[in-house]
Structures are given as C-alpha cells and as structure tokens.
Amino acid sequence: MKTIKQIADELGVSKQKVYRFIVRNHITASSEVKRSKLYDESAEMLIKQGFLEDELHQKSHHEVHQNHINDTVSEAVIELLRKELEQKNEQLQEKDRQIREKDRQISEMQAQLSMNQKLIDQEQQLHMVTEKKFMLLEQQHEHEEVDMKIKEDKKWWKFWE
C-alpha cells in the first residue's frame, strides 16, 4: 500500500497531478492512516498505467507535431535548394552564352589575323620583287653609263690615233 506522495515520487510527477488523476478517474483509497489515504496495488497500477498512457499520448502528439515541423522545414529547404539550383542553371546558361560569344570573337580575330598575315606576306614578296627590279634597273643603268663612257672615249678622231 502506498500514499499519493509515494506514487507521485515513483512517477516523477507532483502529488497534485496524481490527486487530480485519482479524482478524475474515480479511484478510491483502500484505507486511511493518519489522514493519509493509502492505495492498494491494483489502484497503484491503474494510476501508473494512466500516467504512462498520458505520457505516451503526449509523446505521440509531440512526435506528430515534431514531424510536422520537420516536414515543413524539409519542404522549405527543398524549395530553397530548388530556387538556388534554378539560379545556378540560369547563371550557367549565361556563362555558356558568354563563352559562345567569346569563341565567335576569337574565330573572327583568328580570321583577321590570318588575313593580315597573308597581306604581310604579299607585301614582303612585292617589296622583294620591287627591290630586285630596282637593282636590275640600277645595274642596267650602270652598264649604260659604262657603255656611254666607252663611247665617249671612242670619239671619231680617236679612231685614227
């Protein structure tokens, strides 16, 4: 046989909570000693079972509430990650577009560079041909001068000498 205080101590709850449970469930004391009500084992088991059921119900309710909170948080995280993924995909598409534009610019510059190189080669060839012609003209002019000098040296009166 145990008192309300002893049962409350075993359950880890207040005496008042045990007393309210007893009144609510119409549990009667087996005996009374010095104004303390004593409860037999069957009453004690009913009280403990009631508190365990309440505790399980509260835990279950808490778990349901916690699961709801977890689901809400999970949904928020998923939505945040989805938005972030969309943003990253948009950034990647923009980068791809920029890369294609740079590739196009590089191709144009390479074509221009190739054309400029061909023009430089043509200019060098033209310069070499021009120089060669100039040298030939110079040589021809020198030969003509030499020939003129020889002709001058051979005046008609010098033929008789």
Largest sheet: 3 strands, antiparallel
Q: Oligomer, anyone? A: single chain
Which strand order do you get reading across the main beta sheet? 1-3-2
Low-confidence stretches: none
- Average pLDDT reading: 86
Distance between the termini: 174 Å
Alpha carbon gyration radius: 57 Å
Shape: rod-shaped
Helical element count? 3
Beta-strand percent range: 5-15%
Helix proportion: over 70%
What is the number of beta strands?
3
Structural class: mainly alpha
Protein name: DUF536 domain-containing protein
Coiled coil: 75-112
Keywords: Coiled coil
Q: Outline of this structure?
A:
The chain has helices at 4-11, 15-24, 41-153; strands spanning 2-3, 31-33, 36-39. The protein has 161 residues and is mainly alpha-helical.
Question: Would you mind describing this structure in some detail?
Answer:
The protein is mainly alpha-helical. The chain has a domain at 2-98. The chain contains three helices and three strands; from the N terminus they run E-H-H-E-E-H. The protein has helices at 4-11, 15-24, 41-153; strands at 2-3, 31-33, 36-39. The protein has a three-stranded antiparallel sheet. A hairpin with a 2-residue loop joins strand 2 (31-33) and strand 3. Helix 1 packs across helix 2 (15-24). The radius of gyration is 57 Å and the shape is rod-shaped. 6% of the residues are buried. The mean pLDDT is 86.
